[in-house]
Design goal:
Blueprint lengths: L13 H19 L4 H9 L2 H14 L10 H18 L4 H6 L3 H27 L12 H12 L3 H11 L3 H27 L1 H7 L5 H17 L5 H31 L1 H6 L8 H16 L12 H18 L10 H25 L3 H12 L5 H8 L4 H30 L1
Helix pairs in contact: 1-3, 3-15, 4-12, 4-14, 4-15, 6-7, 6-16, 6-17, 6-19, 7-8, 7-9, 7-19, 8-19, 9-16, 9-17, 12-14, 14-19, 16-17, 17-18, 17-19, 18-19
């Protein structure tokens, strides 16, 4: 993901930029756990996680650092994210997650349906009062660009790139769509993070029973406290080995599988599975499977020495690098397309909330079901851990599920958008 951010920034040396981001993260975590009543009041309304995302985006928009000129997002998404997925899945409680029942899956599919229907609905609505926004010809046809947003919002970046390949949107249109994708998706993510802080009130409104979630959360927390210990240097080195060893395995697998998949691109595109030719797709899938397998071994006890805390720390570095790629001022360059994006997201939200109300689903399932679609593996565990760090693996599993169905949903959505654009 990148936006048309500043390329000539004040600091372009990645060592300096990484230092700035780490100081920002430390400041946010330090103040959010402060006993100072002013900070406590501030963080009651502004989630710490939102600041981890928003402050780097402000620095990018002001030209102090540049997401475009930096390799930090690439490093964080390829090295830290897979390590984080391995470490977060290490303490997974499979039986507990199964106890959560079918509501998590129902909300995930409600989210997918909201994206599939939202695209064509937004095009119809906008063309009624501003048809010039939904125009273009050839590779500049707006629906082709919107198809890439559908790919991103049902499964993530790998599917987004796949949609660009399938529908041939021009590079200029694609970069405008990335801006819409990133900013609209993160406005919604901000609402979810605020909602995580008041989830009990929302659950009361939905008359939802969140007892199964509380039970899983408590059983994971109890397990963690029963094996908890002060980690020594050996523990820390083993945890790093588990995380980065899993990352190495994920990259090795991706390096072997991706070239083979590329030779089968014709068959994959015939079955709408082009995201399976993306190495990032395989890195995420193999890292998650590695973590799940290790959760059945004796290595699970390293959770007591803080394995998931390492995983969370890596995830927050990724959050900061994602934020750094967002240019807040870019909203004003594509206002018409933002109207389409916002109406699209609004449809997704309305369908999610209606289904949640009908099946009395807790807000946790609304948030994670939405992010497993819209944000994928990078942000679903982040939103899940905003409810409780113990619940991050639920986000990881649903996000991988999102990858699996993403391309199918996005292609169906793109065909509908093409029909209503004629």
């Amino acid at each position: 993901m990148h936006t048309s951010g500043n390329t000539e920034a004040l600091f372009t040396n990645d060592a300096i930029v990484l230092g700035i981001l780490m100081i920002l993260l430390a400041f946010i975590f330090f103040t959010s756990s402060s006993k100072n009543p002013l900070w406590q009041k501030f963080y009651k309304f502004i989630p710490a996680l939102l600041l981890c995302y928003f402050l780097p985006s402000v620095l990018n928009s002001m030209g102090i650092i540049s997401g475009d000129a930096s390799n930090l997002y690439f490093v964080a998404s390829r090295y830290l994210l897979p390590s984080s997925l391995v470490l977060l899945c290490l303490s997974i409680d499979f039986k507990g997650i199964l106890k959560l029942g079918p509501k998590a899956i129902i909300m995930f599919f409600a989210g997918t349906l909201g994206i599939v229907l939202g695209g064509p609905i937004a095009i119809i609505a906008v063309s009624a009062f501003a048809p010039e926004i939904i125009g273009g010809s050839g590779p500049e046809e707006v629906w082709r660009g919107l198809a890439t947003v559908a790919g991103s919002w049902i499964g993530g970046g790998a599917n987004q790139t796949a949609m660009k390949e399938i529908y041939g949107a021009s590079d200029e249109l694609f970069s405008a769509m990335i801006t819409v994708d990133v900013i609209v998706a993160n406005i919604w993510m901000a609402f979810l993070l605020v909602g995580a802080g008041v989830s009990e009130k929302v659950d009361r409104f939905f008359k939802a029973d969140a007892s199964a979630i509380t039970e899983v959360k408590e059983s994971i927390q109890n397990y963690r406290s029963s094996i908890s210990k002060i980690p020594n240097l050996t523990d820390m080195m083993v945890i790093c080995a588990i995380g980065f060893g899993g990352t190495a395995l994920a990259h090795l697998g991706a390096d072997l599988i991706t070239p083979f998949m590329e030779t089968k691109k014709e068959i994959l595109s015939e079955y709408r599975l082009t995201s399976m030719a993306s190495s990032f797709f395989w890195i995420v899938v193999i890292a998650t499977i590695s973590g799940l397998i290790l959760s059945f071994t004796k290595l699970k006890k390293y959770e007591g020495a803080g394995a998931s805390k390492f995983g969370s720390a890596f995830l927050y570095v990724l959050v900061a690098t994602i934020g750094m790629k967002m240019d807040v001022t870019a909203i004003f360059e594509n206002l018409g397309l933002f109207v389409v994006g916002l109406l699209w997201m609004l449809t997704h939200v309305i369908i999610l909330l209606l289904v949640a109300k009908i099946i009395k689903a807790p807000f946790f399932f609304v948030a994670v079901g939405s992010q497993a679609n819209v944000g994928g593996a990078a942000s679903a565990p982040i939103v899940a851990s905003a409810f409780s760090p113990a619940l991050a693996p639920v986000g990881v599993l649903l996000a991988v599920f999102g990858y699996a169905v993403g391309t199918f949903g996005a292609i169906f959505c793109a065909q509908l958008m093409q029909m209503v654009s004629q």
